[in-house]
């Protein structure tokens, strides 16, 4: 899995760091860390680094398109191409909080269950 530093480098390679949504991605990563800390205190088995990294990269598909469903699919494809299938799931689970197979086909995605499977994917 990518480290948070490697994720920042990946994000920087695809997006100009002065863009507004870079700040958004950093804020989502920080918020994911805060949520994970609270979940861990409550006894939930949540991976802090995975949630932070996923939060940081959750909108990387916006480097391809700002389309609502297109950016999630583009992020998924980007991370699959980079050999990160675990993180890639974050991007399809990010779409409208996750989609069932019938919902996915409505937006042009292959029929599959894209609902979050873990605490980290729910960020």
Report what the structure shows.
This protein is mostly helical and 123 residues long. The protein has one domain (4-122). It has helices at 4-14, 20-41, 48-57, 68-81, 85-94, 101-106. Helix 1 (4-14) packs parallel to helix 3 and helix 4 packs antiparallel against helix 5 (85-94). The longest helix has 22 residues, at 20-41. The protein is globular. The mean pLDDT is 87.
Write a compact overview of the structure shown.
This protein is an all-alpha fold and 123 residues long.
List keywords for this structure.
123 residues, mainly alpha, 6 helices, globular
The sequence of SSEs as H and E is HHHHHH
* Distance linking N and C termini: 17 Å
Q: In total, how many domains does the architecture comprise?
A: 1
What's the mean pLDDT score? 87
Report the oligomer. Answer: single chain
Low-confidence stretches: none
Helix share of residues? 55-70%
Assign the structural class, choosing from mainly alpha, mainly beta, alpha/beta, alpha+beta, or little secondary structure: mainly alpha
β-strand amount? under 5%
Task: Report the sheet with the most strands, covering strand number, pairing sense and barrel closure.
Answer: none
The shape is: globular
Radius of gyration: 14 Å
Note the total helix count: 6
Based on DSSP secondary structure assignment, what is the total number of beta strands?
A: 0
Q: Secondary-structure map with pairings?
A:
Blueprint lengths: L3 H11 L5 H22 L6 H10 L10 H14 L3 H10 L6 H6 L17
């Amino acid at each position: 899995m990518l480290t948070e530093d490697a994720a920042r480098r990946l994000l920087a390679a695809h997006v100009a760091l002065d863009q507004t949504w870079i700040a958004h991605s950093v804020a989502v990563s920080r918020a994911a860390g805060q949520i994970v800390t609270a979940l861990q205190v409550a006894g939930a088995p949540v991976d802090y680094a995975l949630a932070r990294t996923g939060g940081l990269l959750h909108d990387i598909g916006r480097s391809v398109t700002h389309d609502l469903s297109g950016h999630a699919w583009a992020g998924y494809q980007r991370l699959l191409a980079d050999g990160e299938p675990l993180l890639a799931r974050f991007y399809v689970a990010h779409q409208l909080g996750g989609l069932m197979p019938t919902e996915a086909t409505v937006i042009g995605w292959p029929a599959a269950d894209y609902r979050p499977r873990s605490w980290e994917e729910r960020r």
